[in-house]
Amino acid sequence: VQPTMLGVWSLLLLWGLATPCQGLLETVGTLARIDKDELGKAIQNSLVGGPILQNVLGTVTSVNQGLLGFGGLLGGGGLLGHGGVFSVIKELSGLKIEELTLPKVSLKLLPGFGMQLGLHTKVGLHGSGPLGGLLQLAAEVNVSSRVALGMSPRGTPTLVLKRCSTLLGHISLLSGLLPAPLFGVVEETLFKVLPGLLCPVVDSVLGVVNELLGAVLGLVPLGALGSVEFSLATLPLISNQYIELDINPIVKSVGGDIIDFPKHPVPVKVPPKQDHTSQVTVPLYLFSTVFGLLQANGAFNIDVTPELVPVPLTTTDLAALVPEALGRLPPGQHLQLSLRAKGAPTVTLQNHKASVSIPADIHVLPYVPRGTPEALFKLDGVVTLSAQLAPSATKLHISLSLERLSVKLASSYTRAFDASRLEEWLGDTLRAVYVPKLNVALDVGIPLPKILNVNFANSGLEIIQNAVVLTVAS
User: Fold this and answer.
1) Rounded CA separation 338/20 (Å)
2) What is the mean pLDDT of the chain?
3) What would the mean pLDDT of 449-471 be, rounded to a whole number?
4) Which residue in 396, 405, 467, 409 sits closest to 435, CA to CA?
5) 420 is in which domain, residue-wise?
6) H or E element at residue 364
7) pLDDT in tens, 392-426
8) Based on the number of CB atoms within 10 Å of its own CB, is 185 exposed (0-12), middle (13-18) or buried (19 or more)?
9) Which of 122, 136, 213, 355 is most buried when burial is the number of CB atoms within 10 A of its CB?
10) Is-contact 275 296, C-beta < 8 A?
11) Residue 2 lies inside a defined structural domain of this protein
């Protein structure tokens, strides 16, 4: 046995001893629960004209859009065609499979192992009868396979075919004549040949689905900021209703450095998944890391000059609020505002609400287009914003609105004053200029892992303690 294969089977054995978690998520991972309905749909879709399947079975040429055609594995000179297995029966040398009805999929998840996959199909055989004339037969076939779920050497979830068999059902003679002895030979031959012909179909289906499962290990760009790389943190787990993936998001800067922010010490309590739904839980850690990367790139800093605001800040406004801050400046002179984030924003997810708090140094200065004036005063501020979240197929979109601005005086060029009198005045300016700038920067969103073809665009969204849960009906 090759070392790589030993690794795969060891992982499958370890995985078989695991059980789904009891609703607790460690603080870093993104937890995905894929309903068995979604897995069934992925398998069914892979059978509907999937290019990989067509490569196995040949070009689709039959009128009913079946999977077999001339020149395919089963058609033309294939195993059941002229010169194939049936060539040993002189009278039936022209018999070949012309049609394969699109299989119906049945799926049962097997906790601690994988799944039982069944394909029910009808095979159509055409040829010349022993007495000449068209001979048409139809046979019902059930393909039963046992499939293990594990993790590949690449670290992707993978489905591995462990056992496959076929059960031949009723055989119908649709046209032509076929004596009973020859009918028995056809039946016996199909029993021998069909497993070797149809079990590769299962392998092809699993190949398509494994490509979809492998997409979870994607590198998602964050615009000019960097990227998020998703990988499996643990072996896949399985219950009788869903597959569970603990996905580790790794945020990297443009230079490839890993951005690592402190983890919240308390695990997330994930709500139970309802039947016929799939679920992804996005942790607070991923929000905090993306916001931290934005802050490190200066996205939360701004200089507000008169041309940026509909109504410029002036000393006249300031005199009405804190006249002691003006010093010798005349009325009507334009002012500018300089805001610098002092550290990474604090993202809070709790009680069905998302909010962002940005600690900031705020300087109010006389506006001098070509100079470097000294600040009239400096404020220690906290900008608190309410966050609205909206899912799309690939990410969580974030839109911020100013909830409140809290400031206290840090230093003054003239004398001390009560800075709280400036909060509403400065808050209006931040609403007009600062918040729109933040929302442009936040267009990168919070990326979601790609799991099969599950589309979370129309999912229900719930904000819980330290996480966001997206749920979509299968």
Assistant:
1) 51
2) 82
3) 92
4) 405
5) 261-473
6) strand 353-366
7) 998 999 999 999 999 999 999 888 999 999 999 99
8) middle
9) 213
10) no
11) no
* Residue 256: both structure tokens together: 């490839």
173 shares a domain with 53: yes
- Strands 24-25 vs 268-269: parallel, antiparallel or unpaired: antiparallel
- pTM of the shown model: 0.82
Q: What DSSP designation does 458 have?
A: T
Token pair, residue 174, equals 């649709």
CATH number at residue 317: 3.15.20.10
Comparing CA positions, the residue from 95, 146, 112, 116 lying closest to residue 12 is 112
* DSSP 8-state code for residue 241: S
Q: What is the CATH number of the domain that holds 191?
A: 3.15.10.10
User: Which of 154, 181, 214 is where one domain is finished?
Assistant: 214
CA dist., res. 24 & res. 364, Å (int) = 47
Averaged pLDDT, 327-353: 92
CA 85 to the chain's CA centroid:
46
| Residue partners of 445: CB distance under 8 A and separation at least 6 | 392, 395, 396, 397, 398
What single-letter amino acid sits at 172? S
Q: Is residue 117 part of a domain?
A: yes
Q: CA distances (Å), 325 to each of 340, 371, 381, in order? A: 21, 21, 17
Residue 421's CB: how many other CB atoms inside 10 A?
13
Phi-psi region of 83 (alpha: psi -120 to 50; beta: other; left: phi over 0): left
**SS3 of 43-96:** HHHHHCCCHHHHHHHCCCCCCCCCCCCCCCCCCCCCCCCCCCHHHHCHHHCCCE
Same domain? For 68 and 194 the reply is yes
- Identify whether the C-beta of residue 466 lies closer than 8 Å to the C-beta of residue 264: yes
Whether residue 206 sits in one domain with residue 111 = yes
Closest CA to 15 of 129, 158, 139, 121: 158
Count of C-beta atoms within a 10 Å radius of residue 215: 15
Does any domain span residue 23? no
Do 166 and 267 sit in the same domain of this protein? Answer: no
Q: How many domains are there within the chain?
A: 2
